[in-house]
Amino acid sequence: MSTDTLTDLGRDERSRGTSGATLWFTGLPSAGKSTIAHALADRLVADGVAVEVLDGDVVRPHLSAGLGYTRADRDINVSRIGWVARLLASHGVVVLVPVIAPYADARASVRADHAEHAVPFGEVFVATSLAVAEGRDVKGLYARARSGEISGMTGVDDPYEQPTTAELTIDTAAVPLTESVAHAYALLTDLIPERLRS
Amino acid sequence: MSTDTLTDLGRDERSRGTSGATLWFTGLPSAGKSTIAHALADRLVADGVAVEVLDGDVVRPHLSAGLGYTRADRDINVSRIGWVARLLASHGVVVLVPVIAPYADARASVRADHAEHAVPFGEVFVATSLAVAEGRDVKGLYARARSGEISGMTGVDDPYEQPTTAELTIDTAAVPLTESVAHAYALLTDLIPERLRS
Fold it and tell me: Is the minimum CB–CB distance between A14 and chain B shorter than 8 Å?
């Protein structure tokens, strides 16, 4: 960055190097969001890229202890994760966010915040069907929701608004993991071509 | 980093480059925390260092909307900011945190979290006296607290536990800003000598 350029930019912009990007993996519980995100992270790390995975279950106690699963609380949780992702990505980190984010408005807000700060953002819809996701039931949550033990379960008694704006859609019932990762990697290559080689 | 080294480290470690650091500026309201942090940020940016200032008032709506100023809520707020700071610093960012953080235990937890993840951390006690800070009253909060309009004001009717573990103590009534910044810069140079030159 030349000195001439520096004088034209505010401090926030001047303190950034090459941009990272945020890839948000939205989808039903057990759709395969975390599996793809972590496999992609492994590949990126092998490439020497700075990566952070902000996994919903891991992040929630740090950022959103006390929040529940109402629409308002889910939206706040998504907003906080989006803000942290944008900060990290603005400093060159590739941030992978496997978080349900069931409401389109909240996802759109995160996208808008990234755009406002000129940080690349991609939405990956992990479009595994409810039947397949429930068949996996990695955490046993569908079973508990069906038995009435828990409520507010996305896909069962809580809504999931399918993305209409996703840059990439992956049905993990139809596509093997390696191919899913390759598609997501290709999307990243489009978002930050100067950082990755296809 | 050699390939041999890579195989000995987990993904988190492998995805990090040269470390950043967190400097936490603790002190009373109007002590001068933000002023020092932003002046230091300007100097670091001029040096080409990636910097993020997590200023309490700016960060709170993003991370802690809905929280108040009870001890429990303050501790949660500090913990969240500490977690975000540690993530950013682990990816090479110098994170400056001008946040009151009135309770020693909460500050110690942030320090411990950084240590656990091998991220450099320094505590700067901005030790301006209550009399001087209240005389400034940048936001008019002392006046509102004294008149009874607001309560839970640190230094007035809410405690401030003075640090006993600070790496640096600055009394802004005794030391001009340029000197305060130089001291904080020198502390950073101690924490991340490979990144900065004294």
Answer: yes
